[in-house]
Amino acid sequence: MSDGGIRILIAEDDEAIRTGLADALSVEGYEVVACEDGSIAAKAVEDDAKRGRLPNLCLLDVMMPGISGFDLCRNIRAGHPEIAIILLTAKGSELDKVLGLELGADDYVTKPFALAELLARIRAVLRRSAGSAAPARGAASAKPFRFGAAEVDPVRYSVRTPSGAEENLTPTLLKLIEAFIANPGVPLSRDSLLNAAWGSSYYGTTRTLDQHVAILRKLVEKNPASPVHLVTRHGIGYEYRM
After folding, report:
1. Distance between CA atoms of 80 and 154, rounded to whole angstroms?
2. What is the CB neighbour count within 10 angstroms for residue 39?
3. Are 111 and 202 in contact (CB under 8 A)?
4. What is the pLDDT along the chain (242 residues), one digit of tens a residue?
5. Interatomic CA distance for residues 217 and 225, integer angstroms
6. What is the pTM of this model?
7. CATH match for 139-240 among 2.160.20.10, 1.10.472.80, 1.10.10.10, 2.40.50.100
8. What share of the chain is helix, strand, coil (3-state, %, to 5)?
9. What does the DSSP 8-state code read for residue 142?
10. Any idea which fold 7-133 has?
């Protein structure tokens, strides 16, 4: 059973899937809010914000009437960066997955999915989100710090890019940044980075890590096509160079 007090919002237009997920998550001990489309879910999040009781995590179906999961993900991330987000999608293309991650999703699960896998990913994302609520780099980490050619604000979950634009960070991206910051000049294996940011019980593949590193490069490199800070170490993984 999960710890009490964790609130999960489900936005899924398929009644059978929505009801099944709500029942399964309730059995696990989560407090569940189930919404039948994106518009209802968006209103539920804002109503919760007014009451000071935001969801800890949102499960968003990508293809929904009203507001799509992609648009809802973007809106939630912009207004409430502390909420963890997992996208549920029947689409399997790399483009859709990368788009979801770039819009701020912490993870994605492709339908049809095994309930055990989804529950494991929920637990992993919640752990990352809770760990990033108070920055892991000590009291000094409450202040913005340099990462590559960018400036990261861990309290606001934001990064000021080399061009001067301010972009939001997900808890997962912040965990990856912290792993790189702690090991400058050290080649880090994909497995070690997956463990640092996703946890040892993560069900995903190293492709998910590669997609997140690609997103980080767009945020912190002056020329993401020719990275000088987040460098690929072939046969190993990645290395952060200050």
Report:
1. 14
2. 15
3. no
4. 344 589 999 999 999 999 999 999 998 999 999 999 999 999 999 999 998 889 999 999 998 888 999 999 999 988 888 899 999 987 666 667 777 788 888 888 888 888 888 998 898 888 877 755 444 443 334 688 999 999 999 888 889 999 999 988 888 888 899 899 989 999 999 988 988 887 766 666 788 889 899 999 999 999 999 999 999 999 999 999 98
5. 8
6. 0.66
7. 1.10.10.10
8. 45, 20, 35
9. G
10. Rossmann fold (3.40.50)
Q: Residue 121: phi, psi to the nearest 5?
A: -70, -35
Maximal CA-CA distance, the chain: 50
Which one-letter DSSP state was computed for residue 2? Answer: P
| Bridge partners, 189 (sequence order) | 237
- Given the DSSP bridges, would you call strands 188-189 and 237-240 parallel, antiparallel or unpaired? antiparallel
